[in-house]
Design a protein that fits this description.
Elements: E1 8-12, H1 15-28, E2 33-38, E3 44-45, H2 50-55, E4 65-67, H3 69-76, E5 79-82, E6 85-90, E7 95-100, E8 103-108, E9 111-114, E10 118-120, E11 133-134, H4 139-153, E12 168-172, H5 176-187, E13 191-196, H6 210-219, E14 223-226, E15 230-235, E16 241-245, E17 250-253, E18 255-258, E19 262-264, H7 267-271, E20 295-297, E21 303-305, E22 312-314, H8 318-332, E23 347-351, E24 354-360, H9 363-369, E25 374-378, E26 393-399, E27 405-412, H10 416-428, H11 433-438, H12 453-466, E28 471-472, H13 477-483, E29 485-488, H14 492-497, E30 504-505, H15 515-522, E31 527-530, H16 535-546, E32 551-554, H17 557-561
Parallel strand pairs: 1-2, 1-9, 2-5, 9-20, 11-18, 12-13, 12-18, 13-14, 28-32, 29-30, 29-31, 31-32
Antiparallel strand pairs: 3-4, 6-7, 7-8, 10-19, 15-16, 16-17, 21-22, 23-24, 24-27, 25-26, 26-27
Amino acid sequence: MSAPGGRRIVVVGGVAGGMSAAARARRLDEHAQIVVLEQGEYISFANCGLPYYLSGEIAERDALLLHTPATLAAALNLDVRTGHRVVSIDRDARHVRVQAADGAYDLAYDALLLAPGAVAIRPPIAGLDHPAVHALRTVPDVDGLTAALAPLLAAPGAAPGAATREPRAVVVGAGFIGLEAVEALVARGLHVQLVELADHVLPPLDPELAPLLAAELAAHGVEVHLGVAARAIASDAAGGVTVTLSDGAVLGADVVVVNVGVRPASDLAREAGLDLGPGGAIRVDGDQRTSDPHIWAVGDAAESVLDVTGVRLAVPLAGPANRQGRRAADSMCGHRTTRQRPVLATAIVRVFGLTAATTGASQAALRRAGIEHEVVHLHPGHHAGYYPGAEQLHLVASFAPDGSLLGAQAVGRAGVDKRIDVLATALRAGMTADDLAELELAYSPPYGSAKDPINMLGFVAQNALDGQMPQWQAWNLDTVRATTLVLDVRSRQEYAAGHLDEALNIPHLELRDRLAEVSAAADGREISVHCASGVRSYLATAILRAKGFEARNLSGGWQTLTALPTP
């Protein structure tokens, strides 16, 4: 079966996983014949950079094209064939059937790597194939969208029938790519409306953080439609299109971008009889080997196991795909492998001036998995408050009863990436609240605080888990109102600007002198304390508990409470 001069490794699909595997295989085996078969025109491109080329931040299209067949042949002696689509796998004969422009042929392999990626989910929208509808996943996608924008932006009112209005776009899907598309289109001068079926933008984000993104979108003129689906896209009389939503609203647009998610491109594997997971991804072991000992799979089509919850699914992220490609090459070449660890699904996105990032399990994922957890909310500055330019960070983290970190999320204008990367590392290392409290992180006033927000997460989680500072959560507001005394310890000015009707307002500096008033109002009930962010109410709760009251502190304070819908 081996090709003349060495083993033949055939890689199906390029970009992140496939090309990482091919390049690593060459570094491990100079004698192997390595053939990469890519059905598209581009073998290695920066798909994560597409929105930033669309916006104009990446000025040159060629910057997206990382390698060509010629450069890969010269640098790594790879036989890269674009426009070659693998249509079937004969596992017994160990060859693949390839369809190319000049005909079909069979290609034998000793080791076969599948990196076919993912395909876009096609939502049930009438008119989805309208010429005004675009995706944003590939180089041809961004080429088509850029070409569609050119006449709209050539001059004011250049859109057909648009003599007095700015060009318009509707983006369907408020996930990571959808938000990047919105930002890019606004940067190009379009008025954008965003449609999302979920009840908040960026559905993987915890709901108490999502309103921050919605407000940032609104501040940049983006109209957000939540809890609704696009039902139909049709031409209008003015040369544009209309997008009809499930609530009956009709949106006008010149271009429509649809990105509602992807599914594993596993049809080839299914037809070959390889084992698939329940979500359709190709099942692999810790070395990326499939149910066939001669076939490996990586990237968006391969099944991963999520850390914390143990859920099996495809994780369409570039980082895991690149590492999987390296691992598969190690395995194919008989090299020592670093077996795949459960995936944290760490991700980050910029939304105009804000950054949102996640790692590990969200609260929703933990609830679905039935995993007990304590949630901690913080709103610290990203560096020392006395140093100019401190921006507020909004941090949410979940901890197991034994203190193990389960997941974390952050939104803010600065410092988000640093904290999420530290928390992702902590998750991978199995750290606890105690470990976070004791982390020694770089500190200087322009960069952080002596008690970094990561340390503060650990401190607050320690207090909550140890019973030193019991918490109540914003989503328990109905029960809190019905069964406890709500004590608002903010200033009178803050209270006047907005408060719960039934709350007793005693500023925290007055609390020690007004305990009799608290006792009378509580009348034996537990006391649910809150301030703006949870700091002053922490002090107030400590005073109350020291005086014999049953009291709890609102996690995240008024900022978190008002971020969630309240009855």
